[in-house]
Specification:
The protein is mostly helical. Helices cover about 100% and strands about 0% of the residues. Keywords: Membrane, Transmembrane, Transmembrane helix.
């Protein structure tokens, strides 16, 4: 009986060693698969980081363009107000000045006709 247990024990050890070899191969395959997946994920993350950086640069350029456009618009608006005020002043000076000239001409005509 002891010899049978020993023989049986020998078979069990052999099977365990075979199973261990199979498991080692499977583990190596799983590790390789995981390594490949991590490499793909890393590559994808690199692409997304680059894309995000380019998008941030574009957003910054758009923001700067909008801010410059707003500043230019404000400057044009201020210049237009200034021009409008100048034209109004010129109009009133011309109107008052021409009214004074008309009054002088009327007075001269009246004096001449007397």
């Amino acid at each position: 009986m002891k010899q049978e247990q020993f023989d049986n024990h020998e078979e069990r050890i052999t099977r365990l060693e075979e199973n261990d070899a199979i498991m080692s191969i499977q583990i190596a395959e799983i590790q390789e698969d995981l390594r490949e997946r991590y490499d793909r994920i890393d590559e994808s993350n690199k692409y997304l980081r680059d894309l995000s950086l380019r998008q941030n640069e574009q957003n910054s350029q758009i923001l700067n363009a909008v801010l410059k456009g707003n500043q230019d618009s404000k400057e044009r608006e201020d210049k237009l107000k200034e021009t409008t005020e100048n034209k109004k002043s010129e109009f009133w000076v011309a109107a008052v000045g021409s009214g004074g000239i008309i009054a002088v001409l009327i007075e001269l005509l009246t004096n001449f006709l007397k």
